[in-house]
Amino acid sequence: MRSKRLLIHIGTEKTGTTSIQHFLNRNAAALAARGIWYPTDSSRGYCDAAAHFPLAGALVDNWHDFVHPSRAQFLPLCATDFSADARASPAATTVVSSEHFSSRVRDAARLAAFRRTLASTFDDIRIVCYLRNQADLALSSHATRIIFGGRAAFDPAQVSTDDPYFNYLAMLDLWASVFGSDALVLREYDRRTLASGDVCRDFVAKVLDIGDDGLVFSKELNPTPGAILLEITRQLNLALPTVAENPAGWRSAQRLRSILLSTLTISNDVALTLTTAQRQSLLSRFEACNRAVNMRYMKGAMSPHWFDASASGAEDKVVDPDFVNAMTMNALSKLVINFLQTLDKR
CA 202, 205, 209, 210 torsion: positive or negative? Predict the structure, then answer.
């Protein structure tokens, strides 16, 4: 049988995973012509949107907020079905992607069973993972929590090394224990180190190791909203149900948030930031585990900004809370006025 290679792109979250997934999905035919299969058939239970969330969902108990309900029936056999389809594919290389592999999977036994299923088809399995320093990750993940219904204000002191979402060492050790440390392909998510400053071009050049002729690139997806728009959304969330309180109500609330975030424009919005001191305090908490990741899995090649906040190039300021509050109330007032005017026209 012809040798087959599998690339499992496991994230991490907030490192351009959605952009990579949509890029691979959009260019699936062009990649197939080069012997690379990125599964896109929505009739197959392991495909969900432009990615493969059910493959990760099958490895956890709490999958309901990232796997579409229509995929639930496929979870028990999706890894087996995927492996069989890959075996029948003429492609030498297969790529699957889900950021929830890194953020949700914690059970070594279930992950080992997953590997055994894949090993029936693939001779070479690589685990591809982009890493973002915890200060930048904390800011971006806070925005995501708000977008998906979070109610808490941002507090960098709450970012803990006990959280495997931020502690890359624990997550990478798990995957290395099952697939081997040599299987890990790690890249820094930083525009200064990405190929051409773009995560999709980096994936093509450094992971797929092919040229980009004939491939279609677009802007990265999921830009982070500004601090004022995030605060407006957070205030709205206080009156809306969470997924734990009411799953159906949460899905309706998501549609409302989507409309708000896509239509409300705030001309003088500002980015959510950390001071250099805040950034250094946060990074210092993770210094020991980051240095272990650097030596154990990255051959000492981590950039200085993982350890020294002054090397990040970030501005030494934070958004003035009073300014954000004032602009939030102003924007909410305009929303109410526009809503009332719309009602009057009816």
Answer: positive
CA angle 70, 75, 76 (to 5 degrees): 140
CB 119 within 8 A of CB 5: no
| Cα 134-6-300 angle, rounded to 5 deg | 40
66-109 per-position pLDDT tens digit = 998 899 999 999 999 999 999 999 999 999 999 999 999 999 99
CA 118, CA 85: separation in Å to the nearest integer?
11
147-205 pLDDT tens trace? 999 999 889 989 999 998 999 999 999 999 999 999 999 999 998 999 999 999 999 99
What's the burial of 79, exposed, middle or buried (CB within 10 Å: 0-12/13-18/19+)?
A: buried
Architecture of domain 5-133+164-208 in this structure: 3-Layer(aba) Sandwich (3.40)
Give the HSE-up count for residue 320: Cα atoms under 13 Å, Cβ half-sphere: 4
Domain ranges of the chain: 5-133+164-208, 227-270+316-345
Q: Over the stretch 108-139, which tens digit does the pLDDT of each residue have?
A: 999 999 999 999 999 999 999 999 999 999 99
pLDDT tens per residue across span 259-296: 888 877 776 677 777 888 888 999 999 999 999 999 99
Which residues fall within 8 angstroms of residue 199, CB to CB, at 6 or more apart?
Answer: 15, 16, 19, 20, 130, 189, 220
Q: How many angstroms separate the CA atoms of 236 and 328, rounded?
A: 11
From residue 205, alpha-carbon distances to 122, 169, 170, 194, 210 in Å are: 22, 26, 28, 10, 6
Residue indicated by tokens 């957070």: 234
CB-based contact 274:154 (threshold 8 Å): no
